[in-house]
């Protein structure tokens, strides 16, 4: 990046600051832009302390995105004083705003996140074209998917918007629409345009939350948000034994997808977060029924058309969970992520609710009374059944344990099939699982299968 000049809005903290630090180390000249002069100057000093740099390679400039006048003033100064602009990173953004409208009369979140970046881009476009090949990068958000329609009569004020996140998702949808159009319009000018989703990052974006939503909603919502900042344990507990619809819309056996494939996908998508919060743990709820599985037909593994067991695909799904746990336990041990599978034994829960629709009325009236009798003889309560999951999630002595399967808060053996290295690798490498696996690099991309 030597000789390149990169402008980063919101560069004094959070994602923008980390972006600036990385690009400085690559030799780029960085223009940090922020409305807070004190914070901007402090960021420059902090960067100097952390990595050191040539004084000519960094500059702080003030710009308040809540004011179009400030944006125009900044752009004019930049054009007059800076020779180059190779990359424009529109990173600044807010999720909450104490003042609903700016002095320009627009929703504050919409103006900061989209309108001012729209204006800034257009004011600096000639400079970007002069330095081509150049790039524009907008920071978007996965929350844009919650926007189903746009009311243009209220688009930039959002008076009618009562979403939990207010105007934030709409502002990010606007960013993506703008990116989509610019990508097409500027392609022939050798100016590349991109939008990125950094996922959920805990930054100062949440600071104005209390003033924006009020004290009572704040004390209700903030502890929940703060809790989700960390993932110390992922407990994959959800499961079904019966399903009225044999296949999901993705084309897989419903029981297999709910019990195994979706947990496989969820684990991979959250793996970086678990590694960041290590020591952390993953707990899968398995079942003793896995012992009834003697072999796996890979040609039918995820559809189970050939499966005529009384319990259908349920035992197979739990065998897959154990094979996955066995492989993950080995692969993640050095990352300080503990992986366990638990057998809660037979617990009477709503897992049996779809039984009638799944097997039909006649088999149901034969089987259900028998199950109901055994409920009083053998079944545990949900409270008792949860004990082993809790034990594996919190017991300190298990963090570096090589054991991976537990029942009644104690180590239990599994069938030889579920500790078979070649089967575990086959399951991991199976071509139908490839569409679920997250990339091996540190950036987890959203997989198309989710949408």
Automatic annotation (TrEMBL):
Gene3D superfamilies per the UniProt record, alphabetical: NAD(P)-binding Rossmann-like Domain
Keywords, ordered alphabetically: Membrane, Oxidoreductase, Transmembrane, Transmembrane helix
Keyword Transmembrane recorded: yes
Organism from which the protein derives: Rotaria sordida
Domain of life (superkingdom): Eukaryota
Protein name: Uncharacterized protein
One Gene Ontology molecular-function label: oxidoreductase activity
Transmembrane residue ranges: 215-242, 308-326, 358-378
InterPro entries: NAD(P)-bd_dom_sf, SDR_fam
């Amino acid at each position: 990046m030597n000789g390149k000049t990169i402008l980063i809005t919101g560069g004094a903290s959070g994602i923008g600051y980390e972006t600036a630090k990385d690009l400085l180390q690559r030799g780029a000249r960085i223009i940090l832009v922020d409305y807070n002069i004190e914070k901007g100057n402090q960021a420059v000093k902090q960067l100097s302390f952390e990595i050191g740099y040539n004084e000519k390679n960094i500059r702080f400039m003030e710009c308040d995105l809540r004011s179009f006048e400030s944006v125009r003033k900044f752009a004019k100064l930049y054009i007059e004083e800076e020779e180059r602009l190779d990359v424009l990173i529109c990173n600044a953004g807010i999720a909450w705003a104490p003042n609903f409208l700016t002095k320009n009369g627009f929703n504050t979140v919409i103006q900061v996140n989209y309108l001012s970046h729209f204006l800034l881009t257009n004011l600096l476009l000639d400079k970007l074209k002069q330095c081509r090949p150049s790039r524009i990068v907008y920071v978007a958000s996965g929350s844009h998917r919650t926007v189903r329609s746009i009311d243009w009569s209220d688009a930039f004020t959002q008076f009618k918007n009562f979403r939990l996140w207010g105007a934030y998702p709409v502002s990010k949808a606007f960013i993506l629409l703008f990116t989509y159009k610019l990508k097409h319009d500027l392609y022939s000018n050798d100016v590349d345009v991109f939008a990125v989703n950094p996922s959920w990052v805990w930054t100062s974006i949440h600071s104005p939350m209390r003033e924006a939503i009020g004290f009572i909603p704040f004390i209700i919502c903030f502890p929940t948000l703060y809790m989700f900042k960390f993932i110390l344990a992922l407990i994959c507990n959800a499961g079904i034994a019966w399903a009225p619809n044999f296949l999901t819309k993705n084309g897989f056996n419903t029981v297999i997808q709910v019990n195994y494939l979706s947990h496989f996908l969820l684990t991979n998508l959250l793996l970086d977060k678990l590694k960041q919060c290590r020591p952390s743990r993953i707990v899968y709820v398995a079942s003793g029924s896995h012992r009834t599985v003697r072999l796996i037909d890979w040609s039918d593994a995820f559809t189970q058309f050939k499966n005529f067991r009384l319990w259908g695909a349920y035992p197979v799904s739990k065998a897959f969970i154990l094979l996955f746990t066995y492989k993950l336990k080995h692969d993640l041990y050095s990352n300080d992520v503990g992986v366990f599978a638990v057998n809660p034994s037979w617990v009477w829960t709503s897992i049996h609710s779809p039984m009638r629709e799944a097997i039909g009325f006649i088999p149901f009236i034969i089987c259900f009374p028998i199950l109901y009798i055994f409920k009083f003889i053998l079944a545990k309560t949900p409270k008792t059944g949860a004990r082993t999951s809790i034990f594996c999630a919190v017991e300190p002595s298990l963090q570096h344990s090589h054991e991976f399967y537990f029942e009644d808060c104690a180590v239990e053996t599994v069938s030889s099939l579920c500790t078979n290295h070649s089967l575990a690798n086959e399951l991991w490498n199976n071509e139908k699982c490839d569409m679920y696996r997250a990339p091996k690099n540190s950036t987890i991309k959203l997989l198309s299968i989710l949408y």
